[in-house]
Amino acid sequence: MQLYYFPGACSLADHIVLEWIDVPYETIRMDRNGIRSLEYLALNPTGTVPLLVDGDFHLTQNAAILWYLADRYSAAHLLGEPSPQGRAEVMRWLSLLNSDLHPAFKPIFSPTRFLPDASRVDEIAEAARDTVRKYLAILNARLDGRDWLVDQRSIADPYLFVMLRWAVRLNVELKGFEHLGRFLERMYADPGVRKAIIEEEGETAERARAAI
Ligand SMILES: N[C@@H](CCC(=O)N[C@@H](CS)C(=O)NCC(=O)O)C(=O)O
């Protein structure tokens, strides 16, 4: 299996899951030019990472890739309790992360995509930080009294971990979100998480220690 990624991007969640399911895989580091190449666009017309290649199966979209890995390697038990409600709980949190929180970061990463008036980029980025905080407050409350987003470790957790690293890096105010702080520490202590980060960012990979 091959995972196409950018260091520290949402594809890090898939990378961590590949570690957790413990199967042989390769990673292919992409850059801005690479994802715009005709060759890559033929595989993923959205020109984004992640992309997973499993034999002749090419899969795009982060949530789909995470679900596919967990479903294909079900012995790792990353899809929650094996019941319709248990799986729906995983999908609920995965959806919040992929459809609500992840896009909320986009105006912070590249405000001019949303508002070409360069004089107002700080304004749009600050408004986006407020939106990110709104979702993080929901996730912080969810982690009150629990280690993971559902009753056991699942594919939603590495996605939340990536979003928290972004929040720290992009100066989103995280004070008071102590349950998220503990979650971040718990994930950094995981050997599979460490291995994926070091492979993507090197031994000196910054450990996002927020003032939480
Ligand atoms: N809906 C897509 C979004 C993927 C996405 O936004 N990927 C980002 C990295 S986290 C990317 O490749 N951005 C490159 C760009 O926009 O130029 C998914 O969930 O996989």
Any overview of this molecule?
- The protein has 212 residues and is an alpha+beta fold.
- It folds into 2 domains: 2-76, Glutaredoxin (3-Layer(aba) Sandwich); 84-201, Glutathione S-transferase Yfyf (Class Pi), Chain A, domain 2 (Up-down Bundle), CATH 1.20.1050.
- 55% of the residues lie in helices and 8% in strands.
- The chain contains 10 helices and 4 strands.
- Strands 2-1-3-4 form a 4-stranded mixed β-sheet, covered by helices on one side.
- Strand 3 (51-54) and strand 4 (57-60) form a beta hairpin.
- Helix 1 (11-21) packs across helix 10 (191-201).
- The longest helix is centred in the middle third of the chain and has 22 residues, at 121-142.
- The protein is globular, with a radius of gyration of 17 Å.
- The chain starts with a strand and ends in an 11-residue tail after the last helix.
- The structure holds glutathione.
- Glutathione binds at residues 6, 9-10, 35, 48-50, 61-62, 98.
The best one-word shape is globular
Secondary structure tally: strands = 4
Chain-averaged pLDDT: 95
Report the CATH C-level class of the largest domain. Answer: Mainly Alpha
Q: Which assembly state applies to the chains in this document?
A: single chain
Helix-strand category: alpha+beta
Bin the strand percentage: 5-15%
Number of individual domains = 2
CATH architecture of the largest domain: Up-down Bundle
Largest sheet: 4 strands, mixed
Query: In angstroms, what is the radius of gyration?
Result: 17 Å
Spatial sequence of strands, sheet with the most strands: 2-1-3-4
Query: Percentage of helical residues?
Result: 40-55%
Q: At the third CATH level, what is the topology name of the largest domain?
A: Glutathione S-transferase Yfyf (Class Pi), Chain A, domain 2
Distance between the termini: 37 Å
Helices, by number, come to 10
Low-confidence stretches: none
